[in-house]
User: Fold these one by one.
Assistant:
Number 1:
Amino acid sequence: MSYRFAIIGCGHIAQRHAQCIASIGQLEAVCDVDSARAQALANKYGALPFTEVSEMLESQKPDIVAICSPNGWHAPHSIECLRSGSHVLCEKPLSINVADGTEMILAAKDANRKLLVVKQNRFNPPVVAIRKMLDENSLGPIH
């Protein structure tokens, strides 16, 4: 089964999402308030560019949306996507306050959709090494 993806926010991290998406599915749409940035990413992956989230969701009906917009927009963008029927992969932080995070979780439950947050740093070699040392108690007492 091939999944239909969309990305909201076409900045630096969106490039990495697009690259990963291309290896497992189809990037069908991208959205950014900067139309030139949306167009550039769309051209690179054969996607359609949008500047309005609601228009993109209504037109394309993606299975999964990667939220790569600025942090303050994670909650409203995620909630809108979940309510439209898409699963959401949200860049960190999930939200900028607890109330928004709670609303996002409830929106996912209400829509019976998945809400995931990117936590890629747990695989960085220094983090893995520190985790190993903590698990082996080789650092001594931690205060």
Note: The first helix runs from residue 12 to 24.
Number 2:
Amino acid sequence: AGCYVFMATRNGTVKKTLLRDFSRPRSAGIIALDLVEGDELIGAQLTDGDRELMLFSSGGKSIRFSEKQVRSMGRVSRGVRGMEIGADEHVVTLLVADDGLVLTATANGYGKCSALDEYRSQGRGGKGLISIQTNERNGDLVGALMVATTDEIMLITNGGLLVRTRVSEVSVSGRTTMGVRLIRLGDDEQLIGLQRIEESENEGDDDDEADGEEDIFDV
């Protein structure tokens, strides 16, 4: 097994390329994959040839498959279908399936954690399984993370609001459920991203006193 760069695009294409193929970078950059018009790269992960990958779509679907189902290709190749998506959907997240929980979040500020075992492995290129309900209350799926209960996450809105919360405060529920409120949003405000924050041993009591506060930054 070697070391690979595994990539996914908005339209559901995936590609695996040996890391050594990127060993001679140029000042202007080098081609990583051939994108069709209207498509874009949404994520890249380092893998060892034996991992399982997960794709999540804006329609609340997800698919989990072995990277062995994707052959290694050169940098200028286009890739293969990783997930079949609807005409009004797009892929939002690429994850390496790892130990922990799968946290999903939606545009209207709702989300949940689910056990990884709820996402059974499937064949590459399928429509996937429901990851979280997307409806008028929830809105579209905007992101997913592999998390541990000791982690914290940062939630980011299109209004420039960043809110930090503990994963332990997010309920664990089944894959097909609607989830709970993660963040309160203002009128016309939406959640646009989330990021995992690993627990730091250097964080002290000062941080605990600030829990619940919402700081606004320009983004």
Note: The helical segments are 205-209.
Number 3:
Amino acid sequence: MRRNIVLLFLSVFVFSGLYAQADVVNWSFSLSDKGNGEIELVAKAAIQKGWHLYDVKVPEKIKGAKAIGSFKSVNSKLITAYDPGFMMEVGFYAGQATFVQRFKVTDKAAFVLSGDVRAQACNDEQCTPPLPTEFSFSSKNLPPTLSV
């Protein structure tokens, strides 16, 4: 019984620490009109000082649009440095990073774009788990200037 209580305490401590670490990157999401019936999903990451952001993955659900190209960083400085944990050169972002994905809207009324961003942030001592940060847009969120 005593062992179970100790394990429960350790589990609560570890998981609460993981959730506290997840706040080191704050995400914001928006859609912008790029003309010709195209929009861009813009994902901005504000990264706390002393932390850096590694890999970014975006699983998504799309209706009424099709992806053009891939999810990529824009106006963001990719820093490449040797990481002793990985024992190789890796790329990461510090301070801020912006990522975009372009879409061609095919049906404004049926438009749905939802998913989540999963990214890992680290400092010199620890890393956050790549917990999902969700986003969701529907036809009412499309830029009013969009013409299809």
Note: Residues 1-21 have pLDDT under 50 and may be disordered.
